[in-house]
Amino acid sequence: AMLDLVAEAGLSFLHVFPYSARIGTPAARMPQLPMALRRERAARLRELGAAARAAFLASRIGQVETALMEADGRGHTAQFAPIRLAGATRGALVVARVTGHDGQTLWAEAA
User: Directed axis angle between helix 2-9 and helix 35-59, to 10°?
Assistant: First the structure.
């Protein structure tokens, strides 16, 4: 059901981890699944997330993005996609054309 929900919602950035049933938490009161199953489900979600992220990044190629540079040459777009732009300085708000990606980060040049 979670895989279907992620696909239906069009999520492209996932932070996935198996839950931890700590004493006193709602998870501790839930029926417990074997750790191997939790890990397998988390791995499937991570795979789906990586594919969705790569598809989103690929959809941005050729587009002009505004990005906040958080370190020299590295920042995030308005959609929070990581972006690299050579020569951009920390704190700058830049307009850049996306030229590619590596599955994790957009590559760009000044627009």
Answer: 10
Give the pLDDT of residue 27.
82
Name beta bridge partners: 106. Answer: 83, 101
Which long-range contacts does 2-8 make (Cβ < 8 Å, 24+ apart)? 2/41, 2/45, 3/44, 3/45, 3/48, 6/45, 6/48, 6/49, 6/52, 7/48, 7/52
Q: How many Cβ atoms from other residues are within 10 Å of residue 20's Cβ?
A: 9
Main-chain phi, psi angles of 92, to 5 degrees: -80, 145
Q: How far apart are CA 18 and CA 58, in angstroms?
A: 28
Kindly report, residue by residue over 41-55, the tens digit of the pLDDT.
Answer: 999 999 999 999 999
What does DSSP say about strands 82-85 and 106-110: parallel, antiparallel, or unpaired?
Answer: parallel
